[in-house]
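Target chain:
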Amino acid sequence: MLWSKAVRERLKTGGDREVIQTYPYRSACPSTAWTELIENASEELLFAGYTNYFLWTQVPAITATLRQKAVSGCQVRFLLGDPDGDVTRQREVIEGVALTVSTRIRMSLEELARLADVPQIQVRYSAAEDATNHVSLSVFRFDDQAFITPHLARVVGHDSPLMHVRRRGQGGLFDRFSEHAEELWGRGVPLPSIATPQT
């Protein structure tokens, strides 16, 4: 009541306080933002994108960084879609692009195989019954911050919007999206070895 309408419109209150930045396209988020969040994380890195392959093209020296993070005690997890799953095949038809969903997943597996000697890095496929929920929403968590990408109907990930959130309290946006990712992870299927990805 004490603040003018103009001031209230410029100050974030309630749940809005967790939203740091929004981008109409994931590709509009600068690679420096990804790099900074990954490098600053000390406890938790969770990459719950369906393919995750773009990380190796967008984040310089990410393999070395992930190795260093995991060895120093940071939990590093990757949740991928099953490259041979029905939802993956359906999504490939919907997107209709040359760089198919299964190819992008296998590119990630190939890169992750370089980290097979680091047992602290965990990789799972989302369960078949969760694949539709996984392919439609990506959650990338860096300690108490996250990038969220809701995937639009017929576009690839880099053309979908992205939201950067930071945890400010219990039950906010960060917690809601993190709980979604943890639920998918909990039912996920561990890969027997990331050194020998399925082809």
Observations:
- The first helix runs from residue 5 to 10.
